[in-house]
Amino acid sequence: MNIEIEREKDGRWIAEVPDLHGVMVYAQSQEEVVSKVKALALRVLADRLEHGEEIPELSNIFVAPVFALWNAYVSGSGTLILYLNRLIFIILHVFS
After folding, report:
1. Can you spell out the DSSP letters for 37-74?
2. pLDDT value, residue 20
3. What is the block-wise mean pLDDT of the chain (96 residues), using blocks of 10 residues?
4. Shared domain check, 44 and 1
5. Rounded CA gap, 7 and 29, in Å?
6. pTM for this one?
7. The domain that contains 44 carries what CATH number?
């Protein structure tokens, strides 16, 4: 997910995640605004999951890797670590 950051004329920073309607925050520094918008985005996604809403942005994270992990575990092929590494990469990519 992309984060858009701008500095207002009054010096405050504003950040939003365009893919998540309403995820927008203000802060006094660029680092703070990025941290706050990431936290808010995660809260919105968690709320949607809790209420059974679809989250297209996460569909590939929770479906395909879970089956791949199970298959790697059952087959004992030693590829479990590779699938775990891929899952971590995907999660970090989605929230970077």
Report:
1. HHHHHHHHHHHHHHTT---GGGHHHHSHHHHHHHHHHH
2. 86
3. 90 91 93 91 86 70 49 58 66 68
4. yes
5. 9
6. 0.59
7. 3.30.160.250
Place of tokens 């087959």: 75
Q: Would you state the structure tokens that stand for residue 9, as one six-digit string?
A: 């004329």
Q: What is the largest CA-CA distance in the chain?
A: 59
Give yes or no: residues 49 and 69 share one domain: no
Q: For residue 64, what pLDDT is reported?
A: 42
Do both 16 and 43 map to the same domain? yes
Give CA angle at 67 (65, 71), nearest 5°.
115
Tally of CB atoms within 10 A around 71: 13
Tell me, yes or no, whether 2 and 25 share the same domain: yes
Look at residue 75 in the predicted model and tell me its pLDDT.
63
Domains: count for the chain: 2
Contact 34/15 with Cβ under 8 angstroms? yes
At 87 the pLDDT is 66
Expressed as residue numbers, the domain containing 68 is 55-96
